[in-house]
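user: Kindly work through both lines:
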Amino acid sequence: MALYSYLNRIRQLDSLIRQKRTGSPKELSEKLDISERWLYVFLEELKTELDCPIRYDRRKRSYVYEIPGKVVICFTKEMEPWQMKKASGGEKFQTFFSLYV
């Protein structure tokens, strides 16, 4: 369950940052139900481990991403070779296309 809580906090934090609604560090720590000290550790981990370009914007009173983006944590199903052929236009797509090159 600890991993679920950790990942859920990352999702919450990412959402709040993208919406520019984090508030001050104290407000953000309350929203995430963690201490302010743990918040700083958490943010530093995201910056160093996931290369998240996070900074605090005093005018907006919110943490923001310096460049547009989001944190994605999910399971991705790999495609079977036959599915990749079907998705790329079929087995004869390359043969057909090579006639026009």
In short: The longest strand covers residues 54-57. The chain has a mean pLDDT of 85.
